[in-house]
Backbone:
C-alpha cells in the first residue's frame, strides 16, 4: 500500500513538472506578435524644413503636423504604389522638368502632376484625363483641342503649357504657389471664396473640402519620399526604373486616313504609335484645316 502511494505521488510530481516545463517552453517559443519578428511599423519623424515651391510648411501647428504625418505614413507604407511611382517618375520627370522651367513653374509642380494622374493614361470617374487631369471644359477653355478624334489633354507638351498658364494665374490671384496648388484641386473660386469668407490668407489657415485639405499634403509627402527614397525604405537599382524610349518628330499638316498604314511607313506598329501619341484617339487623323501636328515616332 505504501509503495503504491509513493508511486502515485511520484507520477503526480512528474506530471506537474512536465506541465510546468511545457508551459515554459510554449511561452518561450510563442511570438509576441502575430507578424514576423523582423516586421516593424515605425512612426516617422517629420522633416523640419518641409516646403512647397519654397513656401514653408508650419509644422509647429498641431493640426498641420497631424495632416502632414497622415499623408507621409499613408504614402510610405503603401509600398507597392510608392515603388510604381518611382518607376514611372523616372520615365516622365526628365520630360516634365525642362517644360516646367520653360513655362515658369517651380519644379515642385512635377509632384502635383504625379499626384493627379500617377502618370497613367486613365480617365478619372469625373472625366479628368491626361497627365494633368484636365476636365474637358477647362482644357477647351485654355485652347486644347478635344474631340472624338483628338484629345490634347494627352499631349504632354501642350497640356503642361496649359497647366502652367492655369497655375500662374491662380498664384497671381491667390498670392502663393501653395494656394495655387490647392486651387488646382478645388478651383480658383472654390478657394478664393472660402479665404474671403473665413478672413484668412493661407492654405494652412483656411478650412477647405476634405479632398483639398489632404491634397497639398499628399504632394508634399510625395516630394519628401521621392527626394529621399532610402530614408523611407525604398530600395531599387537604376535598371529597375522605367525609361521613355527615344523618339523623333514627324510633322503632319494633312489628313491621315489610316494610322496603321502611316505607322508601317516608319517601321512602327499601331500600338507603338498610340503609346507615344495618346492624343490620337482614333485610327485616323482628321485635319481639314491644314493644322500642323507633331507625331512622335520611336527610334529603333
Residues:
Amino acid at each position: 500500500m505504501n509503495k503504491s502511494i509513493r508511486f502515485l505521488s511520484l507520477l503526480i510530481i512528474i506530471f506537474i513538472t512536465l506541465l510546468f516545463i511545457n508551459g515554459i517552453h510554449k511561452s518561450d517559443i510563442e511570438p509576441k506578435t502575430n507578424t514576423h519578428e523582423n516586421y516593424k511599423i515605425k512612426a516617422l519623424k517629420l522633416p523640419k524644413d518641409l516646403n512647397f515651391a519654397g513656401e514653408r510648411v508650419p509644422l509647429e501647428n498641431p493640426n498641420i503636423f497631424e495632416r502632414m504625418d497622415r499623408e507621409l505614413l499613408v504614402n510610405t507604407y503603401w509600398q507597392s504604389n510608392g515603388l510604381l511611382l518611382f518607376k514611372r517618375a523616372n520615365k516622365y520627370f526628365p520630360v516634365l522638368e525642362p517644360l516646367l522651367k520653360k513655362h515658369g513653374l517651380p519644379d515642385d509642380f512635377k509632384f502635383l502632376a504625379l499626384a493627379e494622374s500617377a502618370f497613367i493614361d486613365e480617365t478619372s470617374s469625373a472625366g479628368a484625363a491626361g497627365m494633368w487631369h484636365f476636365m474637358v471644359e477647362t482644357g477647351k477653355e485654355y485652347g486644347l483641342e478635344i474631340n472624338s478624334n483628338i484629345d490634347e489633354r494627352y499631349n504632354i507638351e501642350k497640356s503642361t503649357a496649359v497647366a502652367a498658364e492655369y497655375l500662374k494665374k491662380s498664384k497671381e490671384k491667390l498670392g502663393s504657389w501653395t494656394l495655387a496648388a490647392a486651387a488646382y484641386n478645388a478651383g480658383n473660386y472654390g478657394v478664393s471664396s472660402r479665404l474671403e469668407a473665413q478672413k484668412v490668407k493661407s492654405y494652412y489657415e483656411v478650412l477647405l473640402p476634405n479632398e483639398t485639405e489632404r491634397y497639398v499634403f499628399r504632394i508634399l509627402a510625395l516630394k519628401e519620399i521621392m527626394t529621399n527614397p532610402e530614408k523611407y525604405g525604398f530600395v531599387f537599382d537604376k535598371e529597375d526604373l522605367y525609361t521613355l524610349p527615344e523618339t523623333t518628330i514627324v510633322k503632319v499638316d494633312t489628313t491621315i486616313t489610316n494610322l496603321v498604314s502611316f505607322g508601317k511607313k516608319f517601321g512602327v506598329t499601331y500600338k507603338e504609335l498610340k503609346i507615344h501619341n495618346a492624343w490620337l484617339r482614333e485610327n485616323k487623323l482628321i485635319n481639314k484645316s491644314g493644322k500642323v501636328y507633331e507625331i512622335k515616332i520611336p527610334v529603333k
The chain has a mean pLDDT of 91. The first helix runs from residue 2 to 29.
